[in-house]
Amino acid sequence: MTSDAAEESGAHPRFAEALEELGLADLLPRIRRFPDATRTAAEAAAAIGCELSQICKSLIFAADGVPVLVLMDGASLVDLELVRRELGAAKVTRAKVELVRETTGYAIGGVPPFGHRTRTRVLADRSLFDHDVVWAAAGTPYTVFPMDPKTLVAHAGGTLVDVREQHL
Questions:
Q1: Cβ neighbours around 166 below 10 Å, total
Q2: For 36, what's the count of Cα atoms within 13 Å in the CB-facing half-sphere?
Q3: Mean pLDDT rounded to a whole number for the chain
Q4: pLDDT grade, residue 4 (50/70/90)?
C-alpha cells in the first residue's frame, strides 16, 4: 500500500500497515475521519450516529505490571476484579499514559484493537457480540472503522470473557 492510501483513509500509518499485513486493506476506504476528536465512546457514537454500545473501546490495563488489552463495548465499564480473576493476577490497574503508548504505539483515545507495537494478552468482553457491526479506533482520536465483532476479536487474538461491570 502506498502512504497516499493510508493518508487518504485518515488511519494512522502503523494501523494502515497492520491492515495490509492482515489482508484487510479493503477496510481502508471504510475508515471514517471526523473533524472533531472521537476520543471517548460517547464522542465516537455521536459522530457515527450509532448506539454507544456499538463502539469497541480498546483499553490497556496493567496486570501485575504487565500490559493487557481489554476490548469492551462503549456503554459498559470494565470490572477490574473480574479482569484480575480472569488473569489470575494479584493486582490490575489502569495503565499509565506512557505504558499505553509504549505498548500499543498509539495515544489514548485512538488505540485500535490490533496493529500494536507489541503483542499483548487480549480479553474481549462478550457484550461486543450483541451487535452485527462495531466501530473501533483506527489509530488516531479522529478515525474509526466498522467491523463485525467476531472478525475484530479474531484479528485482535482476543479471548472471550465476561468482564463487564454489572449493575444491580
A1: 9
A2: 8
A3: 92
A4: low
Cell of 84: 484480575
Query: Hey, what amino acid is at 39?
Result: R
Quick one: DSSP state of residue 141? Answer: T
Q: What pLDDT band is residue 2 in, cutting at 50, 70 and 90?
A: very low
Give the cell for residue 93: 490497574
Cite the beta strand spans of the chain per DSSP E: 32-33, 55-63, 66-73, 92-94, 121-125, 134-137, 143-147, 159-161
Burial of 119 (C-beta count, 10 Å sphere; 0-12/13-18/19+): exposed
Label residue 1 by pLDDT band (50, 70, 90): very low
Residues 74, 155: Cα–Cα separation, whole Å? 19
Q: How many CA atoms lie within 13 A of 2 on its CB side?
A: 3
pLDDT tens for each residue of 74-95 = 999 999 999 999 999 999 999 9
- Burial profile 15-44: b = 16 or more Cβ within 10 angstroms, e = fewer: bbbbbbeeebbebbeebbebeeebbebebb
